[in-house]
Amino acid sequence: MTSWNDSAVEVRPGLVHELVAERARLCPGAVAVSYEGRVLSYADLDAWANRLARVLRARGVGVGSLVGVCVGRSERLPVVLLAVLKAGGGYVPLDPEYPADRLAFMLADSGAGLLLVEDEFTVRLSELAGFGGEVFVVDGDGGGDVGVESGAALEVGVVPGDVAYVIYTSGSTGRPKGVLVEHGNVVNLLEGTRERFGFGSDDVWSLFHSYAFDFSVWELWGALVSGGRVVVVPRALTRSPEGLWALLVDEGVTVLNQTPSMFAQVARAAVDSGGVGLARLEWVIFGGEALEAVHVREWFTAVGSA
After folding, report:
1. What gap in Å lies between CA 205 and CA 254, rounded to an integer?
2. What are the recorded GO MF terms, alphabetically (predicted)?
3. How far is CA 290 from CA 70, 203, 205, 295, in A?
4. 247/241 Cα distance (integer angstroms)
5. What backbone torsions phi and psi does residue 93 show, to the nearest 5 degrees?
6. What is the enclosing helix (H) or strand (E) of 193?
7. CA 108, 114, 119, 123 torsion: positive or negative?
8. In principle, which of 12, 21, 31, 63 could form an S-S bond with 88, CB 3.0–4.6 Å?
């Protein structure tokens, strides 16, 4: 038990966005993000995020700034989050599916002075009572302020102790509480586990969870820091075990992150499809709930006979 639990590794100091930029330099043509048939290469992702970051800098974002992000599921989501980091700020994820009162509370409590939003969600701005900051609509790479900016890297001066993002607790025992997470904390997690698990450029990760849930940090940045591809799961498939299983097979996902209860439903869908052996899954990583034998028994039975 002692030797198994000895997981200490040497981790170099770093910044989340710089590790992604390093991947863009090493493998610019590799696919970084995919969503419903649309793809971004690492070069595309890096340049688009750099252009948006310059726009954010012009609007006052810098080291120590917190920026609200209210966008939907698409290939644009990783770009926006990465751009906030590149501009020196920390992102405050505001899932547009959340109730208005929760969004308004998180935006006010965080003190974010800028809100990034997609056009389809601007109708909800009237629900965010009390927000007096600036709103910037991020839709479209080719036009407006973003399209004319340089895609070259920025020099901002972020250090590992600066905030990368703020995740709010569920509030089930009271009001939600914001947790500030530094770049160094994220890099320790990602770099400390990459060698242990052997994650690399051949891996395909699914971004299943809401980006306002901390599991998403591992799903998104784990893929991009290791040079893999992240598949943004469409909203409808997060509610359909059968649809999710089909996507895992079609996209060749190798790294799946799930709560045990949801995985049990996916496993049932896999068994019912008769296609358990078609999946490329190499890792299923659990979190958010206690893992019990009942959650995985059917999966292992099916895999053992596949």
Report:
1. 6
2. phosphopantetheine binding
3. 30, 26, 22, 10
4. 10
5. -70, 125
6. helix 183-197
7. positive
8. 63
- Give the 3-state secondary structure of residue 306: coil
Q: Are 196 and 9 in contact (CB under 8 A)?
A: yes
**How many C-alpha atoms does 102 have within 13 Å on its Cβ side?**
21
Contacts with 33 (C-beta within 8 Å, 6 or more apart), sequence order? 39, 40, 45, 75, 78, 79, 229, 230, 232
Helix (H, G, I), strand (E, B) or coil at 299: helix
183: helix, coil or strand?
helix
The owner of tokens 């080291």 is 63
Question: For position 142, what pLDDT does the model report?
Answer: 41
Q: In this model, does residue 24 exceed pLDDT 60?
A: yes
Cα–Cα distance for residue pair 20/26, rounded to 1 Å: 10
Note the pLDDT of residue 67.
Answer: 98
Sign of CA dihedral 136, 137, 142, 143: negative
Give the DSSP letter of residue 226: T
Q: Is 69 within 8 Å of 92 (Cβ atoms)?
A: yes
What amino acid is encoded at 80 in this protein? V
Element (DSSP H or E) covering residue 65: none
Burial 221-247 (b: 16+ CB within 10 A, else e): bbbbbbbbbbbbbbeebbeebeebbbb
How many residues does this entry show for the chain?
Answer: 306
User: For 93-148, how does the pLDDT look when each residue is reduced to its tens digit (9 = 90+)?
Assistant: 999 999 998 999 999 999 999 999 999 888 888 888 778 889 999 985 444 678 78
Torsion of CA 268, 273, 274, 277, to 10 degrees: -80
Average pLDDT taken over every residue of the chain: 90
pTM over 0.90: yes
- Domains annotated on the chain, with CATH: 32-182 (3.40.50.12780)
Pairing of strands 204-207, 229-232: parallel
Percentage of residues in the chain having pLDDT higher than 90 = 69
Are the C-beta atoms of residues 33 and 227 closer than 8 Å to each other? no
